[in-house]
Amino acid sequence: MLEAGDKAPDFSGTDQNGNKISLKDFKGKKLILYFYPEDDTPLCTATACNLRDNFSELRNLGFAIVGVSADDKNSHKSFAEKFSLPFSLIADTDKKVLLAYEAWGEKNMYGNIFMGIIRKTYIIDEHGTILKIIKKVKSDSHAEQILG
Fold this sequence. Notes:
Layout: E1 12-14, E2 20-22, E3 30-35, H1 42-53, H2 55-60, E4 63-69, H3 73-82, E5 88-91, H4 96-100, E6 104-109, E7 112-117, E8 120-124, E9 130-134, H5 142-147
Parallel strand pairs: 3-4, 4-5
Antiparallel strand pairs: 1-2, 3-8, 6-7, 8-9
């Protein structure tokens, strides 16, 4: 089980623009790596837009932002364009990043148990160490959670 202080698992994937992205690309930067279930759904949109609205402040504090879901590149591209998202969204269709970061697992909604994406955010420092894991994401105030 990943915890603050652990080395962040290496990852690589392709974003909505076809760019390859990996953990090593953020060496020397702090990274907000957030996992969300699905593009263009109410809570996921609220989270993305909250990070967008606070993007300048977060960037000025040295943070880069990357979102991850199992949606494909085209879905991510449409979502990013619709909401003017200024950060990359990794299309993790094979769930390798989701599994490495324990963001894929059993969920329970209204008594129905199923496998799905677990909404969570990792704050990773300049050296690739996990500083903080947010397991209860507040979609409309997520930047405040990150900075708090």
